[in-house]
Amino acid sequence: MLVRNVSEMKSIVKGLKKEGMTIGFVPTMGYLHEGHISLIKCSKKENDITVVSIFVNPIQFGKNEDLDKYPRDLDRDLKICKKEGVDYVFHPSYEEMYPEGYSTYVITEGLTDKLCGAFRPGHFKGVTTVVTKLFNIIQPDKAYFGKKDYQQYKVIERMVKDLNMDVQIIGCPIIREKDGLAMSSRNNYLSPEERKSALSLSKALFRAKELFEKGETDVEKLKGEMRKIILSQPEVKEIQYIEIIHPETLESKKVAEKGDIIALAVFVGDTRLIDNIQL
Ligand code: AMP
């Protein structure tokens, strides 16, 4: 069932809570793919009711980012949600979420300074704000986030802990195309040539993991190998970052250890792609 108003969503939630239903929540920006579907399936398994939000949140996009061209197809998304047995799709308008006079933001410090946060000022402030609003509206028992956006997952976990929010954050594995490319709504932007070049991101991550498993722990060497693989591709415009980080603090490492995350952001043509892997 499609819900567009905050007030309607809140009254539905109130009714569900009264009946003692548990609520699983999957926040998305729509243009759903298998990555999103895996989160929905997880939620379906663990809760009585599953709510998916579809909201392209303007306040998490920078001025020169892809807000206007971000892919949208509500009909297609609704069909997918129906097929997956989603109970409610919350799809508010911008005005519904940020009415005139809107002035309140949630900021998580520290974890948001690095990686994507360093290159996308204000991005995580937009994310933590919208997720807080969505949590207040939907009051989920559990909320599902993909490890594809590893930093986002950790920032939300931190926020929930710091603000004593009553929701359990569940991190779900990265879903990839058969050839290894991490699924993303933004893959839709890629030309066939760019799609070929984009494959180098996962290739580089898999290669670095393989080298680590063979005994290489020098982060500069691992990063060097990855850069070689990625920069050999004609459509790669820029590596924004490659970092090997501690899985909890997100601090950059010099010597890689089991459990660390290799995270990267790369421009393929004009499309900024992110991916990561755990050692
Ligand atoms: P988005 O619509 O891109 O904002 O993503 C909504 C949620 O789906 C986030 O928690 C993402 O981390 C998650 N997600 C996106 N792509 C994938 C993927 N390939 N595998 C797993 N989760 C994903």
Gross morphology is globular
Which stretches are poorly predicted, pLDDT < 50 over at least 5 residues? none
Measured between the Cα atoms of the first and last residue, the distance is: 41 Å
Which percent range fits the helix content? 25-40%
- Provide the residue-averaged pLDDT: 98
Number of folding domains? Answer: 2
CATH superfamily of the largest domain: HUPs
Largest sheet properties: 6 strands, parallel
- Could you tell me the radius of gyration in angstroms? 19 Å
**Class of secondary structure makeup:** alpha/beta
Number of strands: 9
CATH architecture of the largest domain: 3-Layer(aba) Sandwich
Instruction: Write down the secondary-structure element order.
Output: EHEHEHEHHHEHEHHEEE
Please count the helical segments.
9
Strand-residue proportion? 15-25%
Annotation keywords:
Rossmann fold; six-stranded parallel sheet; 9 helices; globular; binds adenosine monophosphate
Summarize the structure.
With 279 residues, the protein is α/β, with parallel strands linked by helices. Helices cover 39% and strands 19% of the residues.
Explain how this protein is built.
By secondary structure, the protein is α/β, with parallel strands linked by helices. The protein folds into 2 domains: 2-172, 3-Layer(aba) Sandwich (Rossmann fold); 185-278, Pantoate-beta-alanine ligase, C-terminal domain (Pantoate--beta-alanine Ligase, Chain: A,domain 2), CATH 3.30.1300. It contains 9 helices and 9 strands. The chain has helices spanning 6-18, 34-46, 74-84, 94-97, 116-119, 123-138, 150-162, 192-213, 219-231, and strands at 2-3, 23-28, 49-54, 88-90, 142-146, 168-172, 236-245, 261-268, 271-278. The strands form 2 sheets. Strands 1-4-3-2-5-6 form a 6-stranded parallel beta sheet, sandwiched between helices. A 3-stranded antiparallel beta sheet has the order 7-8-9, with helices on one face. Strand 8 and strand 9 form a beta hairpin. It is globular and about 55 Å long. The structure holds adenosine monophosphate. Adenosine monophosphate binds next to helix 2 and strand 5.
